[in-house]
Amino acid sequence: MRPLSTQEFNLFKQLIFDIAGIDLKENKKTLVSSRLQKRLVHHSLNTFGEYFALLNADKSGAEKQVMVDLLTTNETYFFREPAHFDFLVDVLHHRAAGGHFRIWSAASSSGQEAYSMAMILADKLGKVPWEVVGTDLSSRVLETARTGLYSMMRTEGITQDYLRRFCLKGGGPHEGELLIIPELRSRVTFTHANLNTMLPDIGLFDVIFLRNVMIYFNDDTKRTIIKRILERLKPGGYLIVGHSESLKGLSDCVTAVKPTVYQQQAA
After folding, report:
1. Is 136 a catalytic residue?
2. Active-site choice (136, 185, 206, 232)
3. Which of 88, 145, 249, 262 is 20 to 30 A from 60, alpha carbon to alpha carbon?
4. What is the pTM of this model?
């Protein structure tokens, strides 16, 4: 198998940008090579150029989705960046009584963020109707999210109280794993969405988490995606981004209420 050339890397760089708006930097060449090598082996190909040609000939889009899955999967864990979940609790404490509370995990990966939200909503809202929607570009991680099955090694962010109330400890073939309880899983919906294209009809939300995503986009793509995201945020609702991200210079429709937390202007 020939190494990934700079010319071939640039072909994949443009393709993933066209599909997902992701701006791969030159230092990602090794990552692209290592993650796509298995597809060359799978298809008995000798060069990355041959694999690129196969992708272009893929009318079903199935192989392109495999490529996207391989190049966009990111690490996540329960209650990551806990200050954001503390803010969510504060929002719930001060919200007006009644109404259906909806929250969107816009880059949900394998689901830990969405289930973290769900644990808080189940705990704080009682019988008030609520819903969590998780979306991601990767079909593979969404399959994991829907199962709600995770390694016990990755539960350090979950309090003992939440572990007891919302998780089941695995045994036998599932030793060392936990399962999110069915009552919680039934309130969380996962669906495929490409933030770089028209979004599915998922309604409006009180709070949207869009964390650790914009670091992969150039400024023009960021502006387009933020505009698209804000169309799904209710007036007065909150958009939360990652601690290394900012909306400065990207939108005039929100006001920063604290670092990484923005409020949509009221209607």
Report:
1. yes
2. 136
3. 145
4. 0.91
